[in-house]
Amino acid sequence: MSTQRQASQELQRLIEGRIRQRGRVTFAQFMEWALYEPGLGYYEQGSPIEPDYLTSPHLAPDFAQLLAEQMFQFWEILGSPSVFAVIEMGAGSGRLAEDWLTYVQTAHPPFWQALEYRILERSATLRRLQQERLAAFRDKVSWLDGATHLAEQDWDGIPDQSVTGCFFSNELVDAFPVHRVQVQDGALREIYVAVGETGFREVLGDLSSPVLQEYFVRLGIPVEGYPQGYQTEVNLRVLDWLHLLSRKLRRGYVLTLDYGHTADRYYSPHRSQGTLLAYRQHSSHTDPYVQVGSQDLTAHVDFTTLQQVGETLGLQTLGWTRQSSFLVCLGLTERLSALSQAAETVDIGQVLQRRQALHSLLDPMGLGGFGVLVQAKGLTDSERIHPLRGFCEPERIL
User: Fold this and answer.
1) Ramachandran angles phi, psi of 140, nearest 5°
2) Quick one: which of 68, 282, 316, 346 has the most CB atoms within 10 Å?
3) Cβ atoms within 10 Å of 337's Cβ, excluding its own
4) Which residues, 6 or more positions from 396, have their beta carbon under 8 angstroms from its beta carbon?
């Protein structure tokens, strides 16, 4: 039996024992254990997680380089401060950070001098991978302690109202544990996880928090009137995350890249089974209770809530667009054109491979369809209205 399979069985027994002892738990609690249980959860196991799914940083360094161009402009808009913090939340294997830092060091030396690159990573396993990968940048990169959960705990090393710079994340919010709810007899009920004779089973019960009902009231979505059996997810942890960002940021930006929808699309009556998916070995399915700890669990992001709640906390929305548009505005099309000219002087196989990678970043049915949201706090009027390079074709959320 493989080590991974043994770990999965051990985690399942552990979770089942907790449920038998405590009684049913919310799906958010189950998802928390499945992903983050020390030593056993999906993000806590010793093997790299990259093979199970494709993300933008894994395709080509261009993704990180174009992100760097946008953050370089952030620095310029703020008047090129002598200290500018870039705080990556959930850095995965560290590949994006490596490409980002390598590029900035050469392309923008003045920005490099002002830069403080910090990483918030709750997984001890991933922190070790990041530290190995980024060893060459040990004088520029630091890891922040206290992040036992990116959305709940205080972050040691970041006092309130202390950050001038940019908080950014790529495919972070989709991994926050979510509550699952279902419409039953004209009322909103919560889906809990219990244990039966053959393993995990789902049961309906009263909402674990009134905030779940309030979530839909704020959005103006009459979910109780949806068809019987309608299911969806609610990410309450993102609310805590936004509160923390607004507390820590004194002056600068929050840049969020993730897959998701506006609320009217996310909570459409036609999306009757929600967006929860499990990923394993480049394939996806909808059963979260198999291979526990050996598969990723994700749910789409409600970008309307990020905007609405952010606005109440002083995080003003400056732009929202799709990743394809964001990268094109930052110069990806020019990079593709340059590849055609380079084909005459370099290995054609390498050119074709890179071209395919760049086109994948633009695919509207894949990575190109990701949402990109920029919010800001503490900017002057002239700074706030300054056109952002990556948002030359911004869309509206509300």
Assistant:
1) -110, -25
2) 68
3) 10
4) 320
Q: Which amino acid is at 251?
A: R
3-state secondary structure of 76: helix
Q: What is the CATH number of domain 1-47+179-234+263-299?
A: 3.40.50.12710
The span from the CA of 236 to the CA of 290, in Å, is 25
Distance CA 69, CA 41 (A): 35
Secondary structure class of 203 (helix, strand, coil): strand
In tens, the pLDDT along 308-365 reads 999 999 999 999 999 999 999 999 888 888 877 665 566 666 777 777 877 778 888 8
Q: Which two tokens stand for residue 157?
A: 């090393």
Query: Structural domain boundaries of the chain?
Result: 1-47+179-234+263-299, 52-175+236-259+300-391
Going by DSSP bridges, is the β-strand pair 371-377/231-234 parallel, antiparallel, or unpaired? unpaired
Say how far apart CA 122 and CA 51 lie, in whole Å: 20
Q: Which residue has tokens 């370089």?
A: 72
Tokens of 379: 């900017």
CA distance 317 to 242: 13
Side-chain-side CA neighbours of residue 89 (13 Å): 28
Share of the chain above pLDDT 90, in %: 74
Cα end-to-end span (Å), the chain:
51
pLDDT tens-place string over residues 258-306: 999 999 999 999 999 999 999 987 789 999 999 999 999 999 999 999 9
CATH architecture of 52-175+236-259+300-391: 3-Layer(aba) Sandwich (3.40)
Hey, how many other C-beta atoms are within 10 angstroms of the C-beta on 194? 15
Cα(4)–Cα(12) distance, rounded to whole angstroms? 12
Contact 192/202 with Cβ under 8 angstroms? yes
Q: Is the pLDDT of residue 33 over 80?
A: yes
Instruction: Please work out, in degrees rounded to the nearest 5, the angle formed at the alpha carbon of residue 396 by the alpha carbons of 394 and 397.
Output: 130
Residue 51 pLDDT: 47
